[in-house]
Amino acid sequence: MVKRILLPIILSFFLLSLSVHNTVTVHAETPAAFTADQINRIDLNDADLQFIPLFGSREEDNQSIEEIVKIVNSIVKNGEPTTDAIDSWQRFFMSELVIKFNDYTSLSVTLPDTETIYYTYLDKKYKTKDKTAVVALGKLFVSPVQTAVGGQVQIGGTYNLKGEDAYSERGTVFLFIKEIGSSGGYESAKGVHYPSKNALLVHRAPSAFARYDFSYTFPAFGEAADGTWKAIEPGTYDLTIVRDGLTSSHFIKVAAPKEPQLSVNGFPVSETAVKPIIIDGRTYLPARSLAEMFGWDVVWDENQRLVRINTDYWAPASASADGPIRLWVNGKQVSSNTAPVLIENKLHLPLRTVAEAFGFTVKWIASTKSVHAIFEPELLAVYQQDDQTAVFAEAINKYATAFNERNEPELKKLFESETEVFPRFEDIGRRLITSVSNLQSEPRREGKAVAATVDFHFLFDNDGNSQGSRGFVFVQEDGRWVIRDIE
Description:
This protein is an alpha+beta fold. The protein folds into four domains: 21-138, Immunoglobulin-like (Sandwich), CATH 2.60.40; 151-255, Immunoglobulin-like (Sandwich); 261-374, no CATH class; 382-486, Nuclear Transport Factor 2, Chain: A (Roll). It is 19% helix and 39% strand. The strands form nine sheets. Strands 1, 2, 3, 4, 5, 6, 7 and 8 form an eight-stranded antiparallel sheet that branches. The termini are far apart.
């Protein structure tokens, strides 16, 4: 009787132990398997070396991510809980792979030697040994490359910078020049981190998926941390590249330009049709080019030797055939010792005379034969609007001014708190707004929102557009109208 009872019990325990022995251990905290579509990004590093990260949203990274998922699932399958301690100094010199998932959790894999693997998930540490997995993971650590930087550059010259050593999925690359050996770091009022207080910002460009590839014209003027524009004199400097908090400096020698340079609001004018001509120390630009740049209405009356800019009226008296060319701007005759001239039968206007007539600031640097013109956009007349429309007009005016200054903190004040500032400065190149006009507004959502449209006139637009309409969607936030979207 006892044997009949004990035999089934013993047999059950034997089968249970056999089943446990042949079943893979699955830890409650760790999924049985990860999939590639769960992954947001993968970071790889070894000591102070950063390798090219992988992004779940980048199609070209799919194959590498699939390989890593396959290896990690094998590691997880065989890993066992461990209490092994690795101090931070030891860990610094180990290869590490951090997988960040879409649900904001992460799994880190640490490789201390050629076969040992530690992984941590949800604050739980596990360990396994797998030489094949270590070798396979090591092949996926790809070092970034960057265009050779340094040597000699020339003001007005065009250069290319390409690299894979940024960090974020979407970021900005800043180029600065600074005195050799200067440091200290400085946060500008516009929220840009300068590598030193005397550094000058010479260019910014976008990066995507830790990569960047752009061309830029080395400028005659750079932006200082206080927002002013400083002339770049020929000499030796550190060219400092800042991308996503990573910084590198390269020795460069800046040479004077081959020909006169024109900059507008800090941006070098590289278009050949707008190249300045210097005559007796005075700068002249083609009239047609100026008209297209700023949206001016320029008329050349050859019979009366008269140039009318934004002017319908002109003096009726005829001018002598060999007399100076007269200039009218905004309905008024401009008296100046510098008159417009004809060069190869093309009308050229004196930049300083015309610019100052429009309220521009003009600066001439003799050492580099460079002229810098700074203008303020023509804005909406706020006082001509009704009370509510005046609020939108003032906001759009502030938007245009901050846009041209590339002043992100000021732009953020105009937007809804959870709304991203549009557009990103690094995406728009040299684009500037020269004028704002034709404001129209329409209530939406029973007065809870307002759609306002305006016409912008652009300078240096990437797509070659000189003008375009923009729709601003305003909503109420904390008792004031703010921008939710720009269409």
